[in-house]
Design a protein that fits this description.
Blueprint (H helix, E strand, L loop, with lengths): L7 H7 L2 H7 L2 H8 L4 H28 L3 H14 L9 H11 L4 H5 L5 H13 L3 H30 L5 H19 L7 H29 L4
Length: 226
């Protein structure tokens, strides 16, 4: 993983209590320590689809509210990779659907599941945070620095449930996520007032808390990590 460029703001974010609680979510331990059934895995996959599908819209909204070209450029680089560099079949959501159906999961179960309450709250959080420059920066940072943890856990669940060890969706995150983390760090290098830093940190904390609730609900639905 690429080393995140450090700034006083990124150092505050790195030590956030909300971030530490998220990383310690019992879902991640449950994935590593348990056998995973196909029913459990498809529950994860159907809920993950919703933030995955919305994420390019979130990034585009962030670009629209950022005033400086440096930050716009950094977020646009992430967005370009998410949507496949102009090739829809290489977009992350396209690779996700192809990978999971190849692993044996029903396409409609992957893309057609109704969002659980915590999933809907997560999507509303992304929409809300992308409405302002400082909250957008916090939302992007919080997502990118913990995305590989989330993706690798879902990938482990898929492998355990299906025995598919060659998942292209996981592979593309391993390849591209270091760039995403680096670009997220670039957006935090500009000078911020103390009050502005507080807003960025609060937004990142909100994002981590929303993701914690998302995985808490998956623990409740599947029993993993209890």
């Amino acid at each position: 993983m690429a080393q995140l460029i450090q700034s006083p703001l990124s150092e505050r974010l790195e030590t956030s209590e909300a971030r530490q609680r998220f990383v310690a979510n019992p879902f991640f331990r449950g994935i590593q320590d348990s056998e995973i059934t196909a029913r459990q895995a498809v529950c994860f996959l159907g809920q993950w689809w919703h933030p995955l599908h919305y994420f390019p819209t979130f990034l585009a909204r962030c670009v629209a509210v950022l005033p400086d070209i440096k930050s716009k450029s950094a977020i646009t680089r992430i967005l370009d990779q998410e949507v496949g560099h102009g090739k829809p079949e290489r977009a992350h959501e396209s690779i996700y659907v192809e990978s999971m159906t190849r692993a044996g999961f029903d396409r409609e179960a992957v893309v057609g599941a109704a969002p659980l309450p915590a999933t809907s709250a997560l999507l509303r959080g992304y929409e809300r945070l992308s409405g302002d420059r400082l909250t957008a920066l916090g939302g992007v940072y919080a997502t990118e620095v913990t995305d590989l943890l989330m993706v690798s856990s879902i990938g482990t669940a898929v492998e355990k449930a299906s025995r598919d060890r060659d998942n292209a969706w996981v592979a593309i995150h391993v390849e591209q996520e270091p760039d995403h983390v680096e670009e997220a760090g670039h957006t935090l290098m500009e000078g911020f007032t103390e009050a502005e830093e507080d807003q960025v940190v609060a937004a990142a904390d909100e994002m981590w808390m929303l993701w914690s609730a998302f995985f808490d609900q998956l623990v409740g639905e599947t029993g993993l990590g209890r």
